[in-house]
Predict the 3D structure of the following.
Amino acid sequence: MNEQKIEEIYNMIVEYYNKFLKVQNVKLPNLKIKGKYTKDALTLIYLAQDYPNTKTISKSELTRFIQQYYPDVNDVQQARHLGAQKGWYIGSGTRNDNISTLNPGDYKLISLEVAYPGFTGQKRIENVTGDFWEDLKRAYNYRCATCGSKEGEPNYNWPETITKLQKGHMDPNKPLEEGNIIPQCEKCNRADRNYWVYDSKGRVVKIANAKVIDNCSLDIQKQIYERLAKKFKTKNKKSDQD
Ligand SMILES: [Zn+2]
């Protein structure tokens, strides 16, 4: 693929993006950064060839293409990230997303008009520009995502404490970076919060540390034990036979 073709396909993608995908919070990769094509753009361009009659592309084929610009790359993850994290509707045979014709390791660009199913784009975060942390706080109306206490005002539950918002992990097992941050007051952003995974609304949605089981009642511990015993029993039996 020559430079002209790359630009041509990228421009087509931008056209669709502006018309359909921008409002769905899909993230458009830069064509170039510091004069160099980005891996994301190259991946998208390769998958978008002959759109809407796109072909199924194997990961190795895609890798060979990216290697023309990034010779050191040997495991291209871009197609997966473009779908799950950036919202492009790229079918993946590995992801088991019910696009039945795809084999494991195969990708196919399905649409430039519809975002990846289930992709929300975290609109409150992504639509803001400029300083990330200030914008994030503004998106939350300067309130703690968990308890709602407002920055500079007395904490709801500890009125003698003036609220100061901190960067709280959504998932403490992942890095504290854009997409994994909610503003929390110092009362909600305590060390023991590392037991939990929060959603963007500051609600606990998962356990982040198995130790939390130790704090549960014996009855709950027993229920968990039984569930897990049931879940892993079949697996163990199988490996015993191997
Ligand atoms: Zn709070």
